[in-house]
Amino acid sequence: MEQPELNRRQMFGMGRARAVPSRPGDTTGERGQLVRVERPAMGSTFEIRLPASTPGAVDLACRALDVIDALEAQLTVYDDESEVARLNARAHLGPVTVEPGLLGLLETALALSAETAGAYDITTGALSEAWGFVRGPRRVPDAETLAAARACSGWRHLRLDPEAKTVAFDVKGLRINLGSIGKGYALDRAAEVIRASWWPTGALIHGGRSSAVAIGSPPGRPGTRWHVALGNPLDPDSPLGVFRLRNRAIGTSGSAFQSFESGGRVYGHILDPRTGEPARGPLSVTVLAPTAAMADALSTAYYLLGPDAANEHAANQPRIGVVFVNAPSDGDTPEIFSFGVGEGDFVREQKSLH
Length: 354
What we know:
Strand order of the largest sheet: 1-2-3-7-8-11-16-17-18
């Protein structure tokens, strides 16, 4: 007898929920009791924090997490039946109709590729596979394998038709991988659920340590901001500072989060599409932006561009702030370089519970 398929709510419960009171010295910007609901998705643990006074807080958070689950099923490259996987398998044969939200996400990514002269590129899935960052094993590809992967990569091979709502590739073997923007996009869509609630409420939604979006203010503190720590890539237990967010998002990129060693060299997972090889950049780059998708994408783009070109690009973008964390030149503490960060947006060397 065939067993019924379990959905994620059945497998993990509706999401682990807990009410968390504030504590003396709490610097997360949260006063009063919060409900925190979390669920695994996209290789991370997503958590939604809502005031405990919000009617139906747990159900509201779970509905937002359901949206993230649905987007993971659509965007993942680890399931051959996902929409992105089917697109990768068929789009070189001709135009493939895609869901409007996915088309809009691809349009955003493609525009950013043009703005950064190809430094940002979602069509490097073949390169990620060659280096073993998708299904493994992680390895340094030989010259022939790398050349073949580069030949079927590149944003200019991606053809979008907004009117027909189709996507096509003009080269066989091209692979879209939305790992640099998908988590932020999922946070934005989850935030839409919270904002659409009949009961206006603030919220903090995060997807692990790399992405977060803040809605309104923490409970009991109207007009204030949610606090999110800037992680220290060299010492996760010693955050380098605190971002203060209200109706804003952050995204962080850094090669230290995924890497492997071969031949005495460490290779990070952030590939430079212009060379086909892992980039050597700062310890991390964090971007503040109006949306989490933009924050995620720009943090990757700026990691590859470097501070000068990133500063030039960010100067033309509304409400964009950037924090580079560089390896220490003297001592053990990483160096912090920032631009476009407004007064009060970031405070150095503050402890945070996030």
